[in-house]
């Protein structure tokens, strides 16, 4: 090994993924060699050699089957288990320092008492770095009363526009091109308390465009994310920054850049309300003429008693008609004698 050679630093996530890849390759190789060994054993004419080759093939296949659940555990459980004992360390941010470069002033030859006054080009004015804080409007929406652990730590943010079933980024990068739909900021964490208030703030060019704040409902350690899915037309080009807080304590920040013009929003139809004319009933009342009663003078007619005339009508005469009985003779029955043969 040459002098001065150093192994590259690997984090827990990279080491876990490397081990998973190696175990997966071993599963494929063992399965392939086991199947090939069993096929070759069937062509051997000698029983002992055929049996040994068959046993070797089945051992490789059984070893591959045993490695499959180990690969599954490496993919889903081993990383949170390691984070429980080895919490992630926050990424340190380097602060640049300003070096003063003094310039030499020329000494005048006429002055009897020359003096040298160094004039620095860069003034030694310290830069004030403010710690990110939560706006009052967001702080007013806090719900939790549980005090978080001050030792809770978060890893650096990884930005992606898609996640798989295990919350792993599908496409990482600090630069994204429009159109964009759903954006995620993925992180690993440790030391969280269930029910503690946590907040994620999304800024675009220093302006707050989205936030989420709620009680923590995850585990004490593992992988998590904060996301934002606005209309694609709202992803304006610029520099976006995401800040993570636990209660009022700032934990980690990350930035990404969006380039390209966003798609034009689809026009929405605005219904036009046409006022319906209101029928105002106008009642036209025709006055009836007033009836004037004209008095009629009474006339006196003398009463004449009617004359009653009686007329006698005679009764009808009853006439009796004699009834003559009629006798109908009966028919005579005739008997006919038929001789016997």
Please tag this protein with its features.
single chain, alpha+beta, four-stranded antiparallel beta sheet, Immunoglobulin-like, 11 strands
Verbal overview:
The mean pLDDT is 76. A 5-stranded mixed sheet has the order 5-11-10-7-8, with no helix packed on it. Strands 3, 4, 6 and 9 form a 4-stranded antiparallel sheet that branches. The chain has a two-stranded antiparallel ribbon with strand order 1-2. The chain is built from 4 helices and 11 strands, in the order αααββαβββββββββ. Strand 7 and strand 8 form a beta hairpin. It is α+β, with helices and mostly antiparallel strands and 341 residues long. The chain is flat. Among the domains are: 12-76; 136-259, Immunoglobulin-like, CATH 2.60.40.
Topology:
Layout: H1 12-41, H2 47-76, H3 78-85, E1 102-103, E2 119-120, H4 136-139, E3 153-154, E4 158-160, E5 175-177, E6 183-190, E7 197-204, E8 207-215, E9 221-228, E10 238-246, E11 249-259
Parallel strand pairs: 5-11
Antiparallel strand pairs: 1-2, 3-6, 4-6, 6-9, 7-8, 7-10, 10-11
Helix pairs in contact: 1-2
Give the low-confidence spans.
Answer: none
Major sheet: 5 strands, mixed
User: What is the string of SSEs from the N terminus onward?
Assistant: HHHEEHEEEEEEEEE
Taken from the alpha-carbon principal axes, the silhouette is flat
Mean pLDDT: 76
CATH topology of the domain at 136-259: Immunoglobulin-like
- Distance N to C terminus: 158 Å
Q: Classify the secondary structure makeup into a structural class.
A: alpha+beta
Q: What is the topology, as strand order, of the major beta sheet?
A: 5-11-10-7-8
CATH class of the domain at 136-259: Mainly Beta
As a percent range, the share of helical residues equals 10-25%
């Amino acid at each position: 090994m040459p002098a001065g050679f150093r192994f590259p630093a690997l984090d827990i996530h990279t080491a876990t993924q490397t081990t998973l890849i190696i175990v997966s390759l071993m599963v494929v190789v063992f399965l392939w060699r086991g199947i090939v060994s069993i096929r070759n054993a069937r062509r051997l004419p000698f029983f002992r050699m055929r049996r040994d080759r068959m046993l070797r093939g089945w051992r490789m296949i059984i070893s591959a089957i045993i490695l499959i659940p180990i690969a599954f555990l490496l993919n889903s459980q081993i990383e949170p288990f390691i984070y429980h004992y080895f919490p992630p360390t926050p990424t340190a941010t380097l602060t640049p320092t300003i070096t003063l470069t003094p310039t030499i002033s020329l000494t005048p030859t006429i002055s009897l008492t020359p003096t040298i006054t160094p004039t620095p080009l860069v003034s030694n004015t310290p830069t004030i770095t403010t710690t990110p804080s939560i706006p009052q409007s967001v702080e007013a929406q806090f719900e939790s009363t549980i005090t978080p652990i001050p030792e809770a730590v978060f890893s650096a943010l990884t930005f992606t526009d898609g996640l798989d079933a295990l919350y792993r980024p599908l496409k990482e990068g600090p630069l994204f091109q429009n159109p964009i739909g759903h954006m995620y900021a993925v992180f690993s964490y440790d030391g969280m308390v269930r029910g503690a208030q946590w907040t994620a703030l999304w800024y675009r060019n220093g302006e707050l465009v989205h936030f989420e704040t709620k009680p923590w409902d995850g585990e004490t350690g593992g992988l998590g994310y904060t996301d934002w899915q606005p209309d694609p037309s709202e992803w304006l080009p610029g520099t976006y920054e995401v800040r993570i807080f636990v209660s009022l304590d700032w934990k980690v920040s990350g930035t990404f850049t969006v380039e390209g013009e966003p798609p034009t929003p689809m026009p929405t139809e605005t219904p036009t309300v046409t006022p319906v004319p209101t029928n105002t009933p106008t009642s036209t009342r025709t006055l009836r003429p007033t009836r004037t009663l004209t008095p009629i003078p009474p006339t006196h007619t003398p009463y004449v008693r009617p004359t009653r005339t009686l007329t006698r009508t005679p009764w009808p005469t009853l006439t009796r008609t004699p009834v003559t009985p009629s006798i109908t003779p009966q028919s005579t029955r005739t008997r006919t004698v038929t001789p016997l043969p």
